[in-house]
Specification:
about 15% strand, 2 domains, three-stranded antiparallel beta sheet, three-stranded mixed beta sheet, about 250 residues, alpha+beta
């Protein structure tokens, strides 16, 4: 290998940390042609991951490295949200940090093909609810000083509420999570709720906020539009007139 190509490879290793997925679009933008990438992969200096993605050889591929590839390198608008964000931020204490079975990613559009081709990635993609960039934050990783974008706890609980269903996440499960949310920001919550067009999310959120009666709940806006019509959240539940939803009988009081 020529001196120039050796320097290019050294430069690549400086740009790309171990364990981070490098999309080919990012590599091309940084001056690495398809011919050069082919040579790197052929000689074991890069490992190819599906079609259109690479990783440094002998790296351990974990979900954070793939998320950094999506967010920081590919610059795609996907963030870690819902239960996964609550887990990362320490609000789901009985879930194992780093040992999640699935990682919930939220964002518009389709993920790149390489994500699906890497069978070991535990991602589940969600398109709703969408709040734009409201309520997102940066969280440190153990990879250099790079950070991933995750939902704040305020946004994450709203994303989780949307998933309550008979064949999905249960009402009781979310209630256990909600019970630990004692320090949410009413300012952030109000901004998110005022930009939320889901009747289900707003009604469920207000029900739980009233049920647990946290100090922050008194600062939630009383002028939220809840829409018309009843919503069946659970089967064989009791109807709550205030929020026009059915809830499990044990929550009726």
């Amino acid at each position: 290998m020529s001196l120039e190509k050796k320097l290019k490879l050294k430069q690549l290793y400086q740009l790309l940390p171990e364990g981070v997925v490098a999309p080919s679009t990012w590599l091309t933008a940084n001056g690495y042609s398809s011919q050069l990438l082919y040579m790197y992969a052929k000689n074991g200096w890069l490992a190819k991951l599906g079609r259109g993605a690479y990783i440094r050889p002998a790296s351990i591929l974990e979900w954070k490295g793939a998320v950094l590839g999506l967010q920081k390198l590919a610059e795609l608008p996907f963030h870690v949200g819902g239960l996964s964000a609550l887990n990362i931020l320490g609000y789901a204490h009985y879930l194992p940090i780093g040992g999640e079975k699935t990682i919930a990613l939220y964002g518009k559009g389709k993920p790149p093909a390489w994500v699906k081709q890497i069978g070991s990635l535990p991602f589940i993609f969600h398109k709703k609810p969408l709040f734009g960039d409201l309520g997102l934050k940066k969280e440190n990783t153990s990879i250099r000083d790079w950070q991933i974008t995750v939902s704040s706890p305020e946004r994450a609980i709203l994303e989780l509420l949307y998933q309550i269903a008979d064949e999905g996440i249960t009402f009781q499960f979310v209630a256990e999570i909600f019970e630990g949310l004692t320090t949410l920001s009413p300012r952030v919550l109000n901004e998110l709720l005022q930009n939320c067009n889901s009747r289900k999310i707003k009604r469920l959120f207000l029900f739980f906020a009233n049920y647990y009666n946290f100090p922050w709940a008194k600062h939630i806006s009383k002028e939220l539009e809840l829409g018309a019509g009843k919503l069946q959240i659970v089967k064989d539940g009791n109807y709550n007139k205030t929020y026009m939803i059915t809830v499990p009988k044990e929550f009726n009081a």
